[in-house]
Specification:
homodimer, Helicase, Ruva Protein, domain 3, Dna Topoisomerase Vi A Subunit, Chain: A, domain 2, 4-stranded parallel sheet, two-stranded antiparallel sheet, about 15% strand, globular
């Protein structure tokens, strides 16, 4: 690789550190940026350097924001006794497209000992602190329905079960538009357990 | 998306301009950079801003380099009468792993009218200029074996057929370790046409 100038190998190296980008994709991206008229290395570079600039985390819910508190937490029209716990900021964006009217808590990850993510690495202490005054009526745990997400949900139940009157989990079942024929058995089992009476 | 601070949406936008990275991957990469301890947005950002810094193109073969001429072109031990024409700098890196002892010419693309790549956009004029003094004995066209690569090879044959004694193309055929059963018919046809007698 000594044939390539060091600034090129450095860009390739840094790209390779990203998830899902191997050495070959990193090379392709780097040379694309050198040639492309639409994407420019300077624009992407500057955007990345500015990324953490002035970026704050909401002191209440830990959402990324520019102020001390995010737009949701400062909105007095929302139900502050209802907290939806999510893994990351993009989950907040997803739930904001629904008509959810409570507030959020962003964990910035899930419990995953293999990846070195213990309770200390997550914003769990902040969640416990928010519930201490007894004003929170319900916590909806909206971590992903996988092993790590379920472990995180159990941990929250253990930590806050005695403090918060109601701790719930998002419903499991068939996604809208799904085909029962192709649904996996775990999903069908959960859909049966969670069946609701027709009104 | 107004929930996300502008520096985050800007990084997502710039990532989305890269080939093979859609809006969802761009979001994932951006948030990965925010959290990761291994990859940092500052390092990648600075590498990209420096990418074109002091980067030169070899005045002879158009390879990326830091000097006026690249290491291959300044090497007097190599055969300067044999030019291997490739699409991009990574192809040079690939051929340098073989025992090839001639020099190169990097086109920085292939003829592709749909993508706005005509002869003017490629380093074809520079190739013609290199062959003018009659010292070049052979040009090996090593563009990829696809429609654009073949069109570029024909164009080079037209332009230089009268000036350079020998213009060749890389052999087509079965790659080493391939399974004939699974080879496509075009490859098998080319492998038959190009068959060689056993010594």
């Amino acid at each position: 690789m000594s044939l390539l100038p060091p600034q090129i190998t450095r860009a390739i190296e840094e790209f390779s550190k990203l998830p899902g980008i191997g050495p070959k994709s990193a090379e392709r991206l780097t040379f694309h940026l050198l040639r492309s008229s639409r994407a420019s290395p300077e624009n992407l570079g500057r955007a990345l350097i500015d990324l953490k600039n002035e970026l704050k985390y909401c002191t209440a819910c830990q959402m990324v924001t520019l102020q001390e508190q995010c737009a949701v937490c400062t909105d007095t029209g929302r139900d502050h006794a209802l907290i939806l716990v999510v893994e990351n900021p993009l989950d907040v964006v997803a739930f904001e497209r629904t008509s959810y009217k409570g507030v959020y808590h962003v964990l910035h990850g899930v419990l995953s000992p293999i990846d070195g993510m213990g309770p200390e690495q997550l914003k769990l202490r902040e969640l416990v602190a928010r519930c201490k005054d007894g004003a929170v009526q319900e916590i909806v745990v909206a971590t992903n329905p996988d092993v790590e997400g379920e472990a995180t949900a159990s941990y929250i139940q253990q930590q806050l079960g005695a403090v918060v009157p109601k701790i719930t989990r998002l419903a499991h079942g068939l996604p809208m538009g799904a085909d029962i024929e192709f649904a996996d058995q775990m999903t069908l089992k959960e859909a049966l357990i969670g069946r609701r009476s027709l009104r």
